[in-house]
């Protein structure tokens, strides 16, 4: 029973953290564009790199959550 709860928490909280991180990232991106429109290309590249790093968290937490759910860890 506790392994099911632990796996569900790992998957759910990982997705929640990614959603919060994405919303903060893109809010700051839009703020940066509104302040300096000429830096749009540079900001876009940096934003996409950070977006990939933020999205790595739920992928890793889903993998570990599935391993916990199936009792492999």
Key attributes of the depicted protein:
mainly alpha, single chain, 0% strand, 73 residues
Topology:
Blueprint (H helix, E strand, L loop, with lengths): L1 H34 L4 H30 L4
Subcellular location: Cell membrane; Membrane
Organism: Sporolactobacillus shoreicorticis
Main location: membrane
Number of helices: 2
Order of helices and strands: HH
Strand content: under 5%
Describe the largest sheet: none
E-strand count: 0
Please compute the radius of gyration using only Cα atoms. Answer: 17 Å
Fraction of residues in helices?
over 70%
Low-confidence stretches: none
Distance between the termini: 15 Å
Which structural class do you get from the secondary structure elements? mainly alpha
What is the arithmetic mean of pLDDT? 91
Choose one word for the global shape. elongated
Q: How would you name the oligomeric state of the polypeptide chains in this document?
A: single chain
Domain V-ATPase proteolipid subunit C-like: 5-67
Transmembrane segments: 48-72
Pfam families: ATP-synt_C
Subcellular location: Cell membrane; Membrane
